[in-house]
Amino acid sequence: MNNIILIGFMGSGKTSIGTLLARKLSYDFMDTDQLIEKRAGKSIKEIFALDGEEHFRKMETDEILSMQDYLQHTVLSVGGGLPIRTGNAEILRKLGTVVFLKAHIDTLKARLAGDTKRPLLSGEEWDKKVTLLLQSREPVYENAAHLIITTDSKCFEEILDEILEKIVEPI
Ligand SMILES: Nc1ncnc2c1ncn2[C@@H]1O[C@H](COP(=O)(O)OP(=O)(O)O)[C@@H](O)[C@H]1O
Ligand SMILES: O=C(O)C1=C[C@@H](OP(=O)(O)O)[C@@H](O)[C@H](O)C1
Ligand SMILES: [Mg+2]
């Protein structure tokens, strides 16, 4: 098992840190949102609007199921909702070392303010949605993870170093 999977809430830094970590390790980088956008030929926002969230969730599961056949030496960032769907966390844990990038709600809200790409945050009540979603999702992330890294007040380099220090698997 030589893959690293980053999970966590929207804004926890999965895509940014995944990109940097892969570069540092000379691993491939993949991000389920990017793969799905490419496959569908439209943005996540358009998929939600035109096909519905359930269709998107099915695409997420299909993506990680197919990875079981090929994923190697890869840092994989997954969308914030992916580990929540029944069965997905188990698939992720088989794919590699699952790292939960944890952040305080205030940190997440500050990072997500003004976002226009994430359909779940559209509308005026977005910060209330963040509070409710985070409450329900955090225990799922904690259960799914082999390793939890808190990211509040840490720069990217500090987070990368901590992940590499704490990962037990030889990589
Ligand atoms: N540790 C951090 N320090 C400063 N900014 C961060 C940190 N982690 C994430 N960000 C910022 O938060 C935003 C969301 O990051 P992103 O990597 O897209 O998160 P995710 O993929 O988990 O939704 C980006 O603007 C990113 O630069
Ligand atoms: O939390 C979620 O349900 C989602 C998170 C997003 O990815 P990030 O976690 O990378 O923002 C993206 O998959 C989609 O907007 C739905
Ligand atoms: Mg992302």
Account of the 3D structure:
- The protein has 171 residues and is α/β, with parallel strands linked by helices.
- It has one domain: 3-Layer(aba) Sandwich (Rossmann fold), CATH 3.40.50.300.
- It has eight helices and five strands, in the order βαβαααβαβααβα.
- The chain has a five-stranded parallel sheet with strand order 2-3-1-4-5, with helices on both faces.
- α2 (32-40) packs across α4 (53-67), α3 packs across α4 (53-67) and α4 (53-67) runs parallel beside α5 (88-95).
- The longest helix is centred in the last third of the chain and has 19 residues, at 126-144.
- The model has no long low-confidence stretch (mean pLDDT 96).
- The protein binds adenosine-5'-diphosphate, shikimate-3-phosphate and magnesium ion.
- Residues 14-15, 31, 33, 77 line the site of magnesium ion.
Question: Quick one: biggest sheet?
Answer: 5 strands, parallel
Radius of gyration computed on alpha carbons: 15 Å
Question: How do the SSEs run, as a string of H and E?
Answer: EHEHHHEHEHHEH
- Strand content bin: 5-15%
Strand order of the largest sheet: 2-3-1-4-5
State the fourth-level CATH superfamily.
P-loop containing nucleotide triphosphate hydrolases
Strand tally is 5
Q: Provide the number of structural domains.
A: 1
Q: Helix count?
A: 8
Name the average pLDDT.
96
Coarse shape: globular
Top-tier CATH class: Alpha Beta
Measure the end-to-end span.
8 Å
Quaternary state reads single chain
Structural class: alpha/beta
What ranges have pLDDT less than 50 throughout 5 or more consecutive residues? none
Range of helix content: 40-55%
**CATH topology, anyone?**
Rossmann fold
CATH architecture: 3-Layer(aba) Sandwich
Heteromolecules bound: adenosine-5'-diphosphate, shikimate-3-phosphate, magnesium ion
